[in-house]
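Bump. Still looking for Pectate lyase structure tokens.
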Amino acid sequence: MDMLNGWRTRRILAGGCEAANQIDKCWRCKPDWAENRKALAQCVKGFAAGTTGGAAGEIYTVTDPSDDDVAKPKEGTLRWAASRTKPLWIIFDKDMVITLKNELVVASDKTIDGRGVKVEICKGSSLTLYEVKNVIVHGLNIHDTIPTPAATIATGEGPPIPRFKSDGDGIMVYGSCKIWIDHCTFAHGSDGLVDVTMGSTMVTISNCKFSNHDTVMLLGGADANTQDQNMKVTVAYNVFGPGCVQRMPRVRFGFFQIVNNCYDKWKMYAISGTMKPTILSQGNKYVAPDDPNAKQVTMRQANDPEVGVWKSTGDLFENGAAFTDSGGEPKLTPEQQGGMIAAEPAASVPALTKDAGVLTCCPGTPYDHAIGHSCIEGFVLELELLEEALTVVVRVVINRIS
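Sorry for the wait, here they are.
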């Protein structure tokens, strides 16, 4: 029995990391991730490829979860670090619950890296990426955000500036480029969980978990915002549900690759778009709700003359889910083609998305994650059966040699 327990321990240490998708394979199985945090910047895929965040700067450790003075934040707080004009790779020294008094305006060339601890942004305002570039947000649990009033807020080392009220989005990306949001968990916001608007482009949203929310993700804020015509966004390896109603995403204009995501029973629809978008749905798993009136994945505005191109390729449809194509075959520019993630078979989505959301681990070990969403129940069962079979084999071998 001691030999068997030793085998189990070695298996956990050597094989506990089961990274499946190409982003996670780049870094998660390396036990020295905590000593080499900036290697994460080499792993972004999709349209945000090349985003380095704060890799060119020093590592800054947040030690204080307070947010008492938004105009003159204390050193040691997330607001102080995120508002600096120089590149910074921001980490946290312990588990934290941060309640933001007003929106947190994140400056360019930043990485907010929550790996190794539990960082919640909740019950207050949220993150705003306003006319910035080169930002990575990784490993935050953002939930129960609320609207907050206009305020004078620190946005750098200079004098604070007046800012409008915020709507309670989880993360607002406004007029920004080269943005990567990865392995975050979102739920229960007052507005959208992630909004990308006003000419933002070169964005990747990957490995995130979205649940229990109405208007989940907005990519393109209004029909009048023609600057969104050049928007390019990758939505990859995410889990939507349970409890998501609509907008996963809702898009305008632009070019959108939605690849290898798991959709777990929306309430109204999954994907919506207007103003002639190009939507490529590739290798996703769509599980429709039981409601016979909500089986359709897509939703179009009845009076919208600019239907655009909607194309499903290699998607898996369960429980009556259906995707309506339109607009014929897409004609991709070299830039669009070059920014695409190669889709894997939809049957592999449970494995590819099994670790969506905030990860858990300890320094010195590969990154692992507690399983916790219904899209992967079948995959978990297969792993459990495989483990049981291996255990039986090991017992037989031990009995024969003892």
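The domain at 21-375 is CATH 2.160.20.10 (Pectate Lyase C-like).

Edit: fixed formatting.
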